[in-house]
Amino acid sequence: MREDFLYHLWKFQKFNSEALKTSEGEVLLILHPGSHNEYSGPDFFNAKIQIAEQLWAGNVEIHLKSSYWYVHHHETDPNYDNVILHVVWEHDADIFRKDGSVIPTLVLNDKVSHEILESYKELLERKHLKINCEKDFDGFEGFQMQHWLERLYFERLEKRSIEIQDVLEGNGNNWEATFFVMLCRSFGLNLNGEAFRAMAASLDFRIIQKLANDRLRLEALFLGQAGIIKSDDKYALELAREYDYLKHKFSLNNGFIPQPQFFRLRPDNFPTIRLAQLAAIYTKNANLFQQVINANALEELYILFEAETSEYWTCHYNFGRSHPKRQKKPSRAFIDLVLINCLVPFKDYYSKYMGQADEDLIQELISAIPVEKNSIINIFNVLRPGTAQNAMHSQALLELKKEYCDLDKCLYCELGASLLKKSPKYI
Questions:
Q1: How does strand 44-51 pair with strand 28-32?
Q2: Which InterPro entries is this protein grouped with (predicted)?
Q3: For residue 343, what are the CA distances in angstroms to 73, 134, 248, 259?
Q4: Rounded CA gap, 174 and 165, in Å?
Q5: Residue 25: which region, alpha, beta or left (left: phi > 0; alpha: psi -120 to 50)?
Q6: How far apart are CA 84 and CA 49, in angstroms?
Q7: Element of type H or E holding 101
Q8: Cα 81 to chain center, whole Å?
Q9: Model confidence over 395-405: pLDDT tens digits?
Q10: How far is Cα 201 from Cα 362, in angstroms, rounded to an integer?
């Protein structure tokens, strides 16, 4: 058993609260369980109880065993001086205040129904193939599922906001430079995201602005700074000469940038192609950041990123080896990934920063993007067909799997916790 189960029991009062007594035999009445504290300090703040004829207001601490009070050294921590009740599963030691008085203890192990215990064991103690609630996942109500997925998506957005904020602060609140860094990271996808981000962060964005009308030089800048112009191919030599000139002119340093990888990538995702596409996009859209911010429809954003590479890349994926000619502008599927991982989160963060938050627009945009396809989304769609119908759902399910299912945080999940809430309070 884990303490978070006791938190759940106390928070929702899922135990027999009739004729309660402390371990010292005094009559106990719970007026309010308090507010759950998920940070350091007592587990519940501002609880209200009555012991005998005395009213108490203060904090509640919860442990599996009473003796854990001393194991965690709460007796020396002033944050626990205002604890008015110690709630435990097993009472194996009396706990004292600094003045020598006993802190009242409530023992729960004989006050919880068999049904709740069985639900808990089924959820968190027995083996499962995919996720803990896999037997019940198809039975959750549609409204409950939709509500939880929306919350999960905005939880995920909040984490993206923290990433954007960190880059923004490092750039001296330069929005265009920050957008460039985050966009480059998304163009690198999982394998090359950090290498692309490091490349972008190493450049003064004013250089990109100066070269925006010269695709050759912009391409040379990106590929050269990423360290992937390595060939005696005629076009590679031309880019290398341009990059050497730019490196000298702008005092560039690329010695600490991770080397982008080609291994196990489909040719369309080669770093040469993605960086060439970025150069084409910035050549086509000199004021890309503002255009993204001003766009209120998905089609407007697609148009911004439908830029064709230079002629050389229509016949090459990397330097040297050619192939029959084909255009290499970003596909809709790739732009969808950029929308999901960069553009929509950036628009969300920027609007909040400017005090013009538009949650409806963000939800409308993300819900209009097709659902992502991967093994995690497949798990949920097999358990409950049709769970993921758009990118908001798939992003929410990725958050659910990573931050709740994989960490066994079922009691913090609206779906998992509801399984225990449905159990009778006491039998």
A1: antiparallel
A2: DUF2851 (IPR021272)
A3: 47, 33, 33, 25
A4: 11
A5: left
A6: 8
A7: none
A8: 36
A9: 999 999 999 99
A10: 27
